[in-house]
Amino acid sequence: MKAIRRFTVRPVLPEALHPLSDLARNLRWSWHAETRDLFQSVDPERWTASGCDPVRLLGSVSPGRLAELAEDRRFLRRLTAAADDLHDYVSGNRWYQEQSAELPAAIAYFSPEFGITAALPQYSGGLGILAGDHLKAASDLGVPLIGVGLLYRHGYFRQTLSRDGWQQEHYPVLDPNELPVSLLREPDGTPSQVSLALPGDRSLRAHIWLAQVGRVPLLMLDSDVEENDLGERGVTDRLYGGGSEHRLLQEMLLGIGGVRAVRTYCRLTGHARPEVFHTNEGHAGFLGLERIHELSYEELDFDAALEAVRAGTVFTTHTPVPAGIDRFDRELVARHFGPDAELPRIEVERILQLGMETYPGGEPNLFNMAVMGLRLGQRANGVSLLHGHVSRDMFSGLWPGFDSDEVPITSVTNGVHAPTWVAPEVFRLGARQIGAQRTEDAMTNGGPERWDAVAEIPDQDIWELRRSLREQLVTEVRERLQASWRQRGAGTAELGWIDGVLDPDVLTIGFARRVPSYKRLTLMLRDRDRLMDLMLHPERPLQIVVAGKAHPADDGGKRLIQELVRFADDPRVRHRIVFLPDYGMAMAQKLYPGCDIWLNNPLRPLEACGTSGMKAALNGCLNLSVLDGWWDEWFQPDFGWAIPTADGTATDDDRRDELEAAALYDLLEQRIAPRFYERGPGGLPDRWIDMVRQTLTLLGPKVLAGRMVREYVERLYTPAALAHRSMDASSARELAVWKSRVRTAWPHVTVDHVETSAATATAELGSTLSLRVRVGLGDLVPDDVEVQAVSGRVDAEDRIADGTPVPLKPVGGPDLEGRWVYEGPLSLDRTGPFGYTVRILPAHRLLASSAELGLVAVPSEELGEAAGVLMR
């Protein structure tokens, strides 16, 4: 019989055990080993059965066992110690509180997904895991972050395989009452709500669930409330599900409703109001519109409110391809805003202007969430050095007239939260070497000096650790493979072969990630005979563990999975290659430590950053990757291998895959396998162990989320907070009026004449020339602009590379024709072909970048040719 209603019955804990509830409700347990060990000791079997989830564990422990623990003095001492440790962690000073700079009082961090723990399945892949690691690292550092997301009642799908290897999706219903979250409530006990106005006098209401991530509150909006109609109740049903309007409503709820949720949380708890709002990808971009709408009640017009909002907004883009950005039809967006819907005090046309692709190559009828994010954020960044370059190229149309390297998008390379991803055995080895506290500090705060201690760990200890982790992975793989084959319909009698799958002494390669086509899951199958030879080599075999999910609507990705699964089902190789379905955080935490090689072979440069290889590296796994994302930035032959790429424009996709697959096989056969199996005088693979050591010593401090969050604080959050404080109502109005005046006058700003003291087309290194420039400023004055000479090496087409700008100074007032003369020196500081140009940029004390307005005036082509190139 099926129940007509479902309840969650919570246990009544004896008074002595009350701290267990607090420990279970703070997700710090997900990365704090001592707290997890405490919960495991409550009931080891139930702990495993609960998926290592303290809330589920406490809901299933018998009253008898609880009464027994309440009298167990040793357990109570451990409980008190864990509770005291959590109190010290959430209330004591940490890195942020020890800084002397004027740091933000609070930062609101918005993301459509958060991967904190498998017990809170609100993530699909890298973006969510990154967001979770960002919150955890902020907590460890004491950064006053407030996370904002949605609570999806079905989370992301669970994956199984059909008998013939086709991906199948399942959407288990999540009951928030069984999750480590609690409802935010008003003082009278009623649940707090946010509400959005919808067309047709409808409303979208949402409750606010709170997950406590160490020191950081995470607010998650849930539309499954009784006051909503059936359609509105389903807005937060699935992560990345539904059609365009469904996605638009999700993103309106995340951005607009999220700001309202933050305001509610701060009102109820006294938490400092955020000075900085960080949009993690464009999905939450509407938050800027809600803040503009708030300011409209303070008698700021749209333009002034826009300046005030931009000053304190940070936008992070994660996609290197336009197809990865959410774009909505103009009419759909227009219907959901304005007098009859949401944000009635803002003209719909002004909202549309923020997101429309009004630049060469754009689609003028599409509303682009990333474009809106960039227009609403004064500071923007990509997620690796290479991705910063790609993003500047991709969005350069928003800053016409500027070289792509001057587009105001910087980069902060992603990192990973070491306490979450480092195996307990790796932590214990470090603790044995330098002590538990110093090891914890090394993983949270970084600092190369702490990681240098790895050099002192004996080779034997490192190699025994690596084999132990590999052995654990083999056990895990066999258990998961058994379960997968049972789901595929196999009987027990068919599965005896699984006991021989993988070997703890064989070189093990891991490949696990989402399965869009650009990540090339099946590149390893390009030459199947050669791959079989590598796996079955009599002296130097290798084995491969693969996992990954394709988007439910991506049949191409599903076909790739099926192709790999069918290959892995072949009796000749099924003991050497496996595909594990339902890749998620719980699997990943076993997979990364147990592999010797982490393989990544995307189409360069389509991997914005990628962090799976970072997690593997922190466990002593070596990377084998295309030079893309973070690996392009930090690769060294001391600790890994780079797969050569064939990404020239003359190479078609098929030929490119063929060449890069051949390069991959060559590396495995000629360099990687021989090094793994090579033994030194002591019987150990000395050179391999040295690479493991170098991975930990050199990469360890770099790949940490703590390093990443510190960079955000120092390079983006603090400047944004200072700009926010400077942008009071008076300054915002001033800047808005000035920008309007400059935009109106700019068509009449010209470079009219350029002359130099150079008499010939050659000059000597170190000499200085004098520049004299005559410019027209129209209705502007010198205080509104900066006139620059830009010089540097030039290519065959006289394009300046790595240009150095030098400001020129006005000489006297305007002449009879209203023109101004500027002068300045030009230093010839490098040899070879050298050139210069002159340009005029808007200038104002409140601008974050001289490119902010996308306005620049340069000499006409005829004038440029007359000025000439200085040195050849």
UniProtKB/TrEMBL annotation:
Transmembrane regions listed in the UniProt entry: none
Protein name (Swiss-Prot/TrEMBL): glycogen phosphorylase
Gene Ontology biological process terms from the UniProt entry: carbohydrate metabolic process
Biological function: Phosphorylase is an important allosteric enzyme in carbohydrate metabolism. Enzymes from different sources differ in their regulatory mechanisms and in their natural substrates. However, all known phosphorylases share catalytic and structural properties.
Domain of life: Bacteria
Modified residues (N6-(pyridoxal phosphate)lysine): K615
PROSITE patterns for the chain: PHOSPHORYLASE (PS00102)
GO molecular function: glycogen phosphorylase activity; pyridoxal phosphate binding
Keyword Transferase: yes
Every DUF3417 domain range: 13-120
EC number per UniProt: 2.4.1.1
SUPFAM superfamilies according to UniProt: UDP-Glycosyltransferase/glycogen phosphorylase
Organism listed in the record: Streptomyces montanus
High-level lineage: Bacteria, Bacillati, Actinomycetota, Actinomycetes, Kitasatosporales
Keyword Transferase: yes
Family, similarity comment: Belongs to the glycogen phosphorylase family.
